[in-house]
Amino acid sequence: MVQNTAQKDERVTVTFLIDGEAAARATIMLAHGAGAPMDSPFMDQIAQALVDVGFRVARFEFAYMAARRGGQRKPPPRAETVMSEYRAAVMELAATGPLIIGGKSMGGRVASMVADDLHRAGQVAGLVCLGYPFHPPGKPEQLRTAHLAELATPALICQGTRDPFGGREEVSGYVLSRSIELVWLEDGDHDLKPRKKVSGFTAADHLRTVAEAVGAWVDREVIGARR
After folding, report:
1. Could you tell me the sign of the dihedral formed by the alpha carbons of 111, 117, 123, 127, in that order?
2. Fewer CB near the terminus (10 Å): N or C of the chain?
3. Is the pTM of this model over 0.85?
4. What pLDDT shows up at residue 43?
5. What integer pLDDT is reported at residue 78 of this predicted model?
6. How many helices (H) and strands (E) does the chain have?
7. Residue 6 pLDDT grade (very low, low, confident, very high; cuts 50, 70, 90)
8. pLDDT at 74
9. Domains of the chain by range and CATH?
């Protein structure tokens, strides 16, 4: 794992955790969820799973989460307010090959909100969301899907079938762009974690499935589209 700290301006520092080979077929840049940092167990495990199938993975934190490391108690901001931070991270990373953006929960949502502008500019090749927060738990009427109906960027959403932010039965009724593919993890929760006694799968099984699905999707929709 490599830590790379880049100074964006006098107030904000973007710090990346980078895993995998520089010569990988693509880089996947991931932002964390609302409540856990970029080096949470989930983020560590999914990064390793993606490296294992041949990707370079770069993780970064939004400023509020980085501030928590210094002892500041900052709540998660609205997703709209950190879109500029995501764009800045893309610029700071300056990936030389195909770049896929995305993240866990809120991180994936923010990535989805900036994806089309960056894709049109040729800065990103695709989007991967891990546990997309389609709505707040217990509030299915508060959908966060309006922009997903018109999304033009090739996208892959990996979602647990019992995710309280949007399970399979709910999401099947949503209007989503044809550019979006969905991978369902049987009995997975918001961290894609299944109950082994119910599903017969382990969390490691599902993370491996996600990594393999991302690999196949990138080969088909990103690298294949460039040939």
Report:
1. positive
2. C
3. yes
4. 98
5. 95
6. 7, 8
7. very low
8. 83
9. 2-226 (3.40.50.1820)
